[in-house]
Automatic annotation (TrEMBL):
Keyword tags: Carboxypeptidase, Hydrolase, Protease
One matching Pfam family: VanY
Domain D-alanyl-D-alanine carboxypeptidase-like core: 67-172
Protein's recorded name: D-alanyl-D-alanine dipeptidase/carboxypeptidase
Length: 256
């Protein structure tokens, strides 16, 4: 057993941070961890880990020949410019449906990317990314690399955003697979994980040789949250940007 100390500000960092209309992005200074996707997508930046995995996925599909990265990380100032321009050009209703308010955009995390099928003219806000061809091939493998379609059809009341088939969010493994298999949005997944308080019970995920226990630590009211951690298996912790931490303990692979 060892005691882990999580400062309050770590609630606002990690690959599972929930950023939406109710929970603004609070962690600034993303710059040092951002990398370019390179090549024709060189102007698009993502956090390093997601960028590496997205590149691996695309290389396996030979996807960059037919798919372009339209948008990745944005500063709050860039998000504000996009929001104001959309209001002017498209009106309030359209903007409310498709453009997050400044400070509330997943693009500020460095964990989100908009993808589009390459065309002579591409819509920068709503690029075409159909459920067919190479785009479908990308979707079939996305969860294995930690990505989910963040704003699916039929979940608008949950996410507060209209269906965006082009917008993908990195949440990491095995979380992306759980979300894809159960049809969860990130909002729903965080609520689901909160049912498994650390040290009392956990959600066991086993598939394709991977075994992981997933549980939740609610942040204490003070400046730090102290938790007694047990076990020797690799453990990762992500804040949820709201009330606590998602704990993932990877266990030894089993025979699938």
């Amino acid at each position: 057993m060892k005691t882990a100390v999580f400062p309050r500000e770590t609630v606002y960092s990690g690959t599972l941070v929930l950023v939406n209309g109710s929970f603004p992005f609070r962690r600034q200074g993303m710059g040092p961890s951002l990398v370019s996707l390179g090549g024709e997508n060189g102007a698009v930046l993502l956090s390093r880990g997601p960028a590496v995995l997205l590149t691996q996925l695309m290389d396996g599909l030979d996807g960059w020949k037919r798919i372009a990265a339209v948008s990745g990380w944005r500063s709050e100032r860039e998000q504000r410019d996009i929001y104001v321009r959309s209001l002017r050009e498209n009106g309030q209703e359209f903007t409310d449906h498709y453009v997050a308010k400044p400070g509330h955009s997943e693009h500020q995390t460095g964990l989100a990317v908009d993808l589009g099928l390459k065309q002579p003219e591409m819509d920068p806000i709503r690029p075409a990314f159909p459920y067919s061809g190479v785009c479908w091939s990308f979707r079939r493998q996305a969860a294995l690399y930690g990505f989910v379609e963040r704003y699916p059809a039929g979940k608008e009341a949950v996410t507060g955003i209209a269906h965006e088939p082009w917008h993908f969010r990195y949440v990491g493994a095995p979380h992306a697979s759980v979300m894809a298999e159960r049809g969860f949005t990130l909002e729903e997944y965080i609520d689901f994980v909160r049912q498994y308080p650390y040290g009392q019970k956990s959600f066991l995920y086993e598939k394709d040789g991977l075994s992981a226990d997933i549980s939740y630590i609610r942040a204490e009211d003070g400046p730090d949250t102290r938790v007694e951690l047990d076990g020797e298996d690799p453990l990762s912790v992500s804040g949820d940007n709201a009330a606590g931490f998602v704990v993932t303990r990877r266990r030894k692979k089993y025979d699938a």
